[in-house]
From TrEMBL:
NCBIfam families: citrull_CtlX. SUPFAM superfamilies: Pentein. Signal peptide: none annotated. It comes from the Bacteria. This is Amidinotransferase.
Length: 307
């Protein structure tokens, strides 16, 4: 499998018409900010514009962006579609069980229908029924997938249950690597994709948030065994969404889509290492980041073959 398997050239995005930080996710998402002083309609308008501009920028670089509108009011986190579905080479789609009740409404038949109509899909594996048993696995937020080495890195949290992880890895042929990670306040990192980013040639990760030295060493060894360059991020950089990035196949080569805030937090030395294999592509999503996610969360990568 070529290393380019890590970097999709097609993404799905959701443009929310009534964006707001989700009160149901605030208790365990330390990245989320309450914005009580903001006018809700103004915030929603800014988020709508941020998605529009981000999609335009990606398209200008040759990335195929499929935008779906969310005109409803019951799905405040719909801008983050990577949590409820993922796609995989060989024509497979997974649908995931979501921890917050209102996020379960984000699953959309029209998106699955588009994927089936325009890409080669042979199997859909639906784990959403696990919600009835209190078992959750929020897609490529809960897991950061190494599509080349077939490893699923996952921080255990309310959003990532070991049983669901094992089931996914068994069905999709990944090796599970489950570990604990906590922020400076001692709270479990809610999603793995705010802790680490796996690209074709490098991995960015906040290893210092993995408090257990044995687990930290095991994660380091597994990354180094992949042959990728390991770029360590500080807790401050993690808090600025530096790891919430995704490598994409653009017209002129690989780009790393990340937020303006994330890019600003990186050191010149780190940027130099990244630029050996990717061109950073910063997107201004400051309003959306109030909800506790950033660019990686906004982009559901499509790893399917076109019809």
């Amino acid at each position: 499998m070529a290393r380019s398997a890590q970097a999709p050239g097609v993404v799905v995005m959701i443009r929310p018409h009534h964006f707001s930080p989700n009160p149901q996710t605030a208790p365990d998402n330390a990245f989320q900010q309450t914005a009580a002083a903001s006018c809700p309609s103004a915030m929603a308008s800014r988020a709508y514009d941020e998605v529009t501009r981000a999609a335009t920028t990606l398209r200008e670089h040759g990335i195929d962006v499929r935008i779906f509108e969310d005109e409803g009011r019951r799905t405040p986190d719909s801008v983050f579609p990577n949590n409820w579905f993922s796609t995989h080479s060989g024509g497979r789609i997974a649908i995931y069980p979501m921890y917050p009740h209102n996020r379960r409404h984000e699953r959309r038949a029209d998106i699955i229908a588009m994927l089936k109509g325009e890409f080669r899909v042979r199997e859909l594996v639906d784990y959403s029924g696990l919600e009835q048993d209190g078992i959750f696995l929020e897609g490529t937020g809960a897991m950061v997938l190494d599509h080349v080495e077939r490893v699923a890195y996952a921080v255990q949290s309310n959003r990532t249950h070991p049983l669901a992880l094992e089931r996914f890895c068994s069905h999709f042929n990944y090796e599970p690597m489950l570990f604990q990670a906590m922020d400076a306040g001692g709270k479990a990192v809610y999603h793995t994709n705010v802790l680490m980013c796996i690209a074709s040639e490098f991995v960015m990760i906040g290893l210092e948030l993995i408090r257990d030295p044995c687990q930290r060493a095991a994660v380091r060894r597994r990354i180094e065994a992949s042959g990728r360059l390991l770029i360590e991020l500080s807790a401050t950089q993690i808090a600025n969404f530096a790891a919430n990035a995704i490598e994409l196949q653009a017209r002129e080569g690989a780009v790393l889509a990340l937020s303006v805030r994330a890019l600003a937090s990186l050191t010149p030395e780190q940027l130099g290492l990244l630029e050996r294999s990717v061109t950073p592509l910063p997107l201004d999503v400051a309003t959306i980041e109030l909800a506790g996610g950033s660019v990686r969360c906004m982009l559901a990568g499509i790893h399917l073959s076109p019809r």
